[in-house]
Amino acid sequence: MATYAIGDLQGCLDPLLALLREIRFDPHEDRLWFTGDLVNRGPQSLETLRFVRSLGERAITVLGNHDLHLLALAAGCGRPRADDTLDGILNAEDRDELLEWLRRRPMLHAEGEYVLVHAGLLPQWSVRQARELAAEVEARLRAPDYGDFLAKLWGNQPDRWDDALQGIDRWRVIVNAMTRMRFCSAQGVMEFQTKGEVRAAPPGYMPWFDVPGRASADATVVFGHWSALGWYERPNLLGLDSGCVWGGRLTAVRLEDRRVFQCACAAAADPMRGQ
């Protein structure tokens, strides 16, 4: 049995199927971990969502910002973007079943030495605290009034963690860190405008994983979201968004021995549009 962690799909099912053939994925024995953003920008958002859902317990996926965007649109509280490719899901006969499944996915998955999250963890958070905070948001997404929660979720403020935060301000920081963050300050102040490579960090900011004394550094964080970073490996980091939807590659890493597998992808979205 092997566990393969796979980067952002963003509605690109064909590259995923090609990659699964390359790794000889056995749905009876192997497991897949997805870094989130299953949908949007690519041409097969509906088919991708259906396929990952069909894997049942063989697949674990955490929620990404595009997944939450889909849930907000479906709940009537999101703002459509010109480059969205979500109409197929929103108009599908099985949309309710798909969206019900999606909103019950975790924000974070921790198992053994690994922590799976879409974007990152604030430097103040230990893995234990991050799991507890993720559970707070998961409870709100799984509640009957989750639409009200999503309607109030969007925004960049507060831009830092404080244990005293309550209600929507608290949950917004958790969601923004776990699904949107790339750069933050040494004090954990998040910056959301910059999307480029590490060397593009604004003055006073750094990649979230480079903050000295990061409390989650004792675990290996598996993440996506940052296509400009590409495939990125350190002893305690695995960055897996290698820009499949932009014409880059789809990356998988076998966690047992960290062997890397990649397949080339045809561009399905304009890389100048960013993320």
Describe the structure.
The chain is an alpha/beta fold and about 280 residues long. The protein has a single domain (about 5-275), classed as 4-Layer Sandwich (Purple Acid Phosphatase, chain A, domain 2). About 30% of the residues lie in helices and about 15% in strands. It contains 8 helices and 13 strands. The chain has helices at about 15-20, 45-55, 65-75, 85-90, 95-100, 125-140, 145-150, 165-180; strands at about 5, 30-35, 60, 110, 115, 185, 190, 205, 220-225, 230-235, 235-240, 250-255, 260-265. The strands form 3 sheets. The chain has a 5-stranded mixed β-sheet, covered by helices on one side. Helix 6 (about 125-140) crosses helix 8. The two termini are about 35 Å apart. The mean pLDDT is about 95.
CATH T-level fold name: Purple Acid Phosphatase, chain A, domain 2
Q: What is the annotated CATH architecture?
A: 4-Layer Sandwich
Oligomer: single chain
The tally of strands reads: 13
Major sheet: order of its strands? 3-2-1-12-13
Which geometry do the CA atoms define? Answer: globular
Order of helices and strands: EHEHEHHHEEHHHEEEEEEEE
Number of domains: 1
| H/I helix tally | 8
Strand content: 15-25%
| Spatial extent as radius of gyration | 17 Å
- Report the mean per-residue pLDDT as an integer: 96
The chain-level structural class is alpha/beta
| Biggest β-sheet strands, sense, barrel | 5 strands, mixed
Distance between the termini: 34 Å
Write out the CATH superfamily name.
Answer: Metallo-dependent phosphatases
- Helical fraction equals 25-40%
Just give the CATH class.
Alpha Beta
- What low-confidence regions span 5 or more consecutive residues with pLDDT below 50? none
